[in-house]
Write a structure and sequence with these properties.
about 260 residues, 3-stranded antiparallel beta sheet, Chorismate lyase, 11 strands, 6-stranded antiparallel beta sheet, DNA-binding, alpha+beta, Arc Repressor Mutant, subunit A, homodimer, 7 helices
Chain lengths: ~260, ~260
DNA sequence: TAGTGGTCTAGACCACACA
DNA sequence: GTGTGGTCTAGACCACTAC
């Protein structure tokens, strides 16, 4: 690439993998364009979760930019938790399947003791028409089929979390209570490995609610007991909403932690 | 700076503002050292909140490094929300005092309508001995004096938040209910402007609790009503804990929002 | 026009992992 | 030793703001 960066004005190498936008009026830095191209490759499955992507030098050659430009693109993807850099080894596609230790999105911590794993219990897993609110959240047509999973998480034999998980039926064909129970790692690992659905980002809405009759029984608390209601909408590539999860947390001996800065 | 970066081994310009660590065995990149120096200047008040810091070129000259190295240091401080970059104008010390629109750390949003400001009501502000748990959280000696503020936040005339705020008495000499009530902006702006205490970072522990008698009266809910309990520990420079805030949120028509990635 | 941050390059060397 | 990411430099030019 010559010294005068053509950026969005005069593309001088409009070949296969050239990086410049051709003539668009909107300005976008080269590294952002590289980032988009990398994102597209990730979404398209060119590199699978856990695998290494090409080295910075290789990518620089492929996109015909300098290493520094590729570097900045990768940096942003790394802070977005889409890629993981490992010095001396390479850059890898992030994955929920081998995330050491703990659930990536679960912010629940015990008052005392280490944040060890929790026992999972799938209550049921069935297909039904998505209710209106679920359909709206997941961008489904009303009447579309959805999967509903209900499960609990327990620590030391005591149930702490009751989850109600809604998924679009399409991408999750073949998901059963058995497969959920059999899979060793976190649920998002299974989604990734078995269904090619990778969770990128989520928004949570948190409230305090009173336990209803059924919930009280499942969580072994009194009816009316205050519970944390955590509604999570998870998104996959392209910011597409793909999971709606409604959790009820018993915060008698656990708390939801959050860091602000 | 010569091509062979001396880093931690052979300082070649040990003058006033030279950047290298002298002889320490622990490796630390130059830009991290610059970051520390900038942090020290911020902490020491060389540049006040809202002011501009010197340009990248000036800082590069001062620390005898390249612009790119200063740049990376500033980048990190900017993502930490300690500095704010404004293209064409300069780099500024972040401040709570002019943060347009909304509270920086308050994650409460209304179910409907825009997240407009809320009405503040200071119930009381007094000095007393810090209880054991507060003293522990704020690193005070047991028996040290502390300020306790109680206040509510209301939207459309309805109280939504009841805060109980603990501060060490020392740095907040002269803080009264009147000054709290009179100050126009957010409380952290007042802390910054009047007491030189800038909040950098906070951790929150969230639970669901039942409203007790007194709380129920203040928030105009029934006794036993589920409320969100938000315990926030805020830190200032040097990661020093400086505020313990216990909030009770009525989440009937508001929710606590959180983004996960 | 001058000064600021923002982008991009090309090349050097360092730290780390692995064979 | 080779290859990877990580750091640092020097210099060019672009985009934005203010005077």
């Amino acid at each position: 690439m010559p010294a005068s960066n053509p950026a969005n004005a005069s593309p001088d190498s409009p070949d296969g993998e050239g990086a410049q936008l051709s003539g668009g009026p909107a300005f976008s830095p080269l590294y952002q364009q590289i980032k988009s191209l990398l994102l597209r490759s990730l979404q398209g499955g060119e590199w699978k979760p856990g695998e290494a992507i090409p080295s910075e030098m290789d990518l620089a050659a492929r996109f015909r930019v300098s290493q520094g430009t590729v570097r900045k693109a990768i940096d942003e993807l790394a802070t977005d938790n889409l890629l993981v850099r490992r010095q001396g080894k390479g850059t890898f596609v992030a994955t929920h399947a081998e995330e050491n230790i703990q659930y990536r999105f679960l912010r629940l911590a015990p008052d005392e003791g280490p944040a060890t794993g929790m026992a999972r219990d799938v209550l049921d897993c069935r297909r039904l028409r998505a209710p209106a609110d679920v359909a709206r959240a997941l961008n489904l047509k009303s009447g579309d089929s959805a999967v509903l999973i209900r499960r609990t998480l327990s620590r030391n034999g005591t149930p702490v979390v009751l989850d109600e998980i809604w998924l679009p039926a399409g991408p999750f064909k073949g998901l059963t209570a058995e497969r959920l129970s059999d899979y060793a790692g976190p649920m998002y690992g299974l989604f990734e490995t078995e269904f090619g659905v990778r969770m990128i980002r989520a928004e949570e809405k948190i409230r305090a609610v009173a336990a209803d009759n059924v919930t009280a029984g499942l969580l072994k608390v009194a009816e009316g007991c205050p519970l944390l209601s955590v509604e999570r909408l998870s998104h996959t590539y392209g910011d597409k909403p793909i999971e709606l999860r409604r959790g009820l947390y018993n915060t008698a001996s656990h708390f939801y932690r959050n860091d602000l800065n």
